[in-house]
Amino acid sequence: LARIRDGKHRYRLGVMGGTFDPIHHGHLVAASEVAARFDLQEVVFVPTGTPWQKVGRKVSNREDRYLMTVIATASNPRFSVSRVDIDRPGNTYTVDTLKELKAERGEDVDLTFITGADALGSILTWRGADELFDLANFVGVSRPGVDLRARDISHLPAEKVTRLEVPALAISSTECRKRVREGLPLWYLVPDGVVQYVAKRGLYTPANEGETLAAD
Ligand code: ATP
Ligand code: MG
User: Fold this and answer.
1) pLDDT surpassing 70 at residue 47
2) Residue 141 belongs to a domain
3) What's the pLDDT band for 6 if we cut at 50, 70, 90?
4) Which of 21, 24, 27, 174 to mutate to test the pocket of ligand 1 (most atoms within 8 A of CB)?
5) What is the torsion angle, in degrees rounded to the nearest 10, for the CA atoms of residue 133, residue 79, residue 115 and residue 7?
6) Which residues does the UniProt record annotate as the domain Cytidyltransferase-like (predicted)?
7) How do residues 8-28 score in pLDDT, each as one tens digit?
8) What pLDDT is attached to residue 137?
9) What is the DSSP letter of 107?
10) In terms of DSSP H, where are the helices of the chain?
């Protein structure tokens, strides 16, 4: 990736965390829109290792989720994928993700964490909440079914948290998984390569249901 590092400009890096089981066009539109509006040079997609919010649920193998994320983002020169979370053992906490990215990318990088409106209000319940706002800015994007305005974010530092209306795509990974189980098509909800990867690996079918997440 082309990076301007002349000492004068800071590098604006977006961070899109998610389980990506599977990655879908809602994720991609959110990342693309935030990149355009906030003039980000790059958005790095970070598939979670063990998402602590999803303990007790079935989640696909992390390498499958990583590869789907690579397939979905490969054609966009501004998109990249990081293994920091899937390579770190234990539960995934955003504070660790941001610290690791900062250590890896250097001090002249400004991080913008992108999250859906459904998760925005609960940032303070995340582990390391006191440090989060020193590490990154947060952008909460609109999501169909979640009222962006109704989410109370008055308890979050206003200069660190922005809400952004993005083109509405009523797609969720939960719905994608359900569609596969019901034999309905995934076409046009996720990138073509992801449709084909899901079929090839038998994801979301009894043949490959992934692992049940245990708390650590
Ligand atoms: P699941 O149904 O399994 O929770 P999901 O569709 O919510 O999956 P995640 O991997 O949990 O996908 O989401 C990663 C991030 O992307 C979250 O911050 C989430 O709010 C956001 N996001 C997911 N889908 C959309 C969408 N359609 N529009 C905007 N943001 C979205
Ligand atoms: Mg979700």
Assistant:
1) yes
2) yes
3) low
4) 27
5) 20
6) 15-179
7) 689 999 999 999 999 999 999
8) 97
9) T
10) 25-37, 62-73, 94-105, 117-120, 129-135, 173-181, 192-201
Q: Ligand 1 in contact with 48 (CB < 6 A)?
A: no
Domain, as residue range, for 115: 11-209
CA–centroid distance, 109 to ligand 1, in Å, is: 25
* In a domain? residue 215: no
Number of domains in the chain: 1
Q: Quote the DSSP letter at residue 6.
A: S
Within-domain flag for 4: no
Q: What CATH number corresponds to the domain at position 73?
A: 3.40.50.620
Supply angle C-alpha 187, 86, 194, rounded to 5: 10
Q: Are 180 and 195 in contact (CB under 8 A)?
A: no
CA Rg, the chain, in Å? 17
CB 181 within 8 A of CB 205: yes
State pLDDT tens for residues 88-133.
998 899 999 999 999 999 999 999 999 998 888 888 888 998 899 9
pLDDT for 166: 97
Asked whether the predicted pLDDT for residue 1 surpasses 50, the reply is no
